[in-house]
Write a structure and sequence with these properties.
It contains no helices and 25 strands. The protein has 312 residues and is mostly beta strands. It has 2 domains: 3-49, no CATH class; 51-311, Methylamine Dehydrogenase, Chain H, CATH 2.130.10.30. A hairpin with a 4-residue loop joins β9 and β10. The radius of gyration is 19 Å and the shape is globular. It starts with a strand and ends in a 12-residue tail after the last strand.
Length: 312
């Protein structure tokens, strides 16, 4: 999960994501919370809180609450061919999750993976996780992959009878689309299955759509490659803290914590709201983001459907 640190500096309350500030990403907020007094050199008052994990799928969204439980909600009333139980999350405490087209998967606090939704063997097996303990995961339409504490990637789905290891390298962050997976190694180089071969690194983060990918450089600039039928490669020449992709669009959190999206926009999935946000997830035709001051905002396909009250 991401972590946010609120720090009083010079009488202003600022926000640091994961303990770091890139460029001008500190936001001045709620100065009265610091008592309106300037902090002397070396003096710091802080309050730490945990963010919910947020993941947008095709017809549903899921989030991890502060107590580790999962809440999922659908984008309206699903047709029978769309409803596979992908929003029927299991009980327990979880530390990571990923929502996809017709299934979702999450890592329990024990490291075991639980998946729910469409999992019958004739539909690729992407919701049938292997035994083992994992730290992070990413789910695509026909494929799910998880990363263990040693940096080994294990995948399942694609109609394979057994889980498989797509890379021999020790890797970090994962990104999965319908049928392929990309991951970053410790040098910031991107490793991918399938035709999407990345330019040379280093990258700090990788985001993967159906036939395109975008990488976040250490300086905060975004570089994209692959298909550009809907402008999904036309990243703004601005600095970003985080990016995420799905289908034919990509969104990012700028260094001032505002949102920007580019690519397919027929349903409004590339037209995000104004405001300041600390977490972001792109669905197939929509997106959702967690506001710095709390609450989840969604836009695009199905965004008129309410977020559960305890996540607002």
């Amino acid at each position: 999960m991401g972590r946010v640190m609120l720090e009083c500096r010079g009488g202003a309350l600022i926000v640091l994501l994961n303990g770091t500030v890139r460029g001008a990403s500190a936001i001045v907020l709620l100065a009265p919370a610091c008592g309106g007094q300037s902090a002397s050199a070396g003096q710091e008052a802080s309050l730490e809180f945990r963010l919910d994990e947020l993941s947008a799928g095709a017809f549903h969204n899921c989030a991890i609450r502060g107590d580790g439980s999962i809440a999922c909600w659908t984008l309206g009333d699903l047709r029978p061919e769309e409803d596979h139980g992908q929003a029927a999350s299991p009980p327990g405490r979880f530390v990571d999750l990923s929502a996809s087209w017709s299934h979702s998967c999450a890592v329990r606090d024990s490291g075991e993976v639980a998946c729910w939704g469409r999992s019958e063997s004739e539909y690729y097996g992407q919701a049938d996780p292997p035994l083992g303990r994992f730290a992070k995961l990413s789910a695509g339409e026909h494929l799910t992959c998880a990363l263990d504490a040693q940096g080994k990637v294990t995948c399942w789905g694609l109609d394979r009878e057994e889980p498989f290891v797509p890379f021999s390298e020790t890797l970090g962050q994962l990104a999965v689309d319908s049928d392929d997976v990309c991951a970053l190694d410790g040098r910031g180089e991107v490793h991918c299955t399938g035709p999407l071969q990345a330019p040379p690194g280093p990258f700090a983060e990788i985001a993967l759509g159906d036939h395109h990918a975008c990488g976040l450089r250490p300086n905060g600039l975004v570089e994209c490659w692959g298909d550009n039928d809907f402008g999904q490669l036309d990243a703004p020449q601005q600095t970003f803290l985080h990016i995420d992709a799905n289908a034919s669009h990509t969104c990012g959190i700028r260094d001032d914590h505002s949102l920007a999206c580019w690519g397919f926009d027929t349903y409004g999935g590339s037209t995000p709201p104004s405001g300041q946000y600390s977490q972001l997830s792109t669905g197939r035709w929509h997106g959702c983001a967690k506001a710095v001051l709390g609450g989840i905002a969604c836009w695009g396909f199905g965004s008129e459907n309410d977020v559960p009250p305890d996540l607002q």
